[in-house]
Amino acid sequence: DARVTQTPRHKVTEMGQEVTMRCQPILGHNTVFWYRQTMMQGLELLAYFRNRAPLDDSGMPKDRFSAEMPDATLATLKIQPSEPRDSAVYFCASGSARTGYGYTFGSGTRLTVV
Amino acid sequence: GENVEQHPSTLSVQEGDSAVIKCTYSDSASNYFPWYKQELGKGPQLIIDIRSNVGEKKDQRIAVTLNKTAKHFSLHITETQPEDSAVYFCAATLSGGGADGLTFGKGTHLIIQP
Q1: Pick from A54, A41, A29: which is nearest to A106 by CA?
Q2: Residue B66, φ and ψ in degrees, nearest 5
Q3: Quick one: how far is CA A84 from the chain centroid?
Q4: A7-B107-A49-A103 Cα dihedral, nearest 10 degrees
Q5: Is A48 at the interface with chain B, CB within 8 A?
Q6: Which residues in chain A have Cβ-Cβ distances shorter than 8 Å to B49?
Q7: Is the model's pLDDT at A76 over the cut of 80?
Q8: Per the CB < 8 Å rule, is A31 touching B99?
Q9: What would the pLDDT profile of B16-46 be if each residue is shown by its tens digit?
């Protein structure tokens, strides 16, 4: 089965450090999403791209978060500087507008900022 | 923007019984409604979806119903089994193609009692 690959699976970092999370979407999917999951807020959409162009990043704290797609096989989410409140599970998902399929989620990156 | 409410937050049923999870949405323009199942340590997995031109959809033991007038949709699981234990999320979006930002409900923790 095709899958979305996220790395790393777990990350523990100290407050103030830069964190980079990576995502390899399913080949052929032209839309990539970043979600954050916490117990309090549930699943929140941070940003998404279509054909590598950013379409919406209104859910993302722009002073410290940035999302990019350097090429069709890689999406990145960076936090600089990281804060304890950023601790969450970050999911990448991909989909295809052409086929109308629902998203496929990756297994997530569990981030802990101490 | 869209707001999705999901109930109940926890549902415990006896193995073999049916389970029903309900969601309401606020934006009458939303036209795509997927349901996701999330097991511990994994990303959400699409289990069934429905589009606004359909009132009901079934896939083996699961079914989803949609009432556009009332702006609510429900997930029905019949003959529940232990492997159905998980957190279930409903979601809604405007695009209809499953490739724009989904708004998720807060989730329902389904517990199947042996």
Answers
A1: A29
A2: -135, 130
A3: 18
A4: 80
A5: yes
A6: 102
A7: yes
A8: yes
A9: 999 999 999 999 989 889 999 999 999 999 9
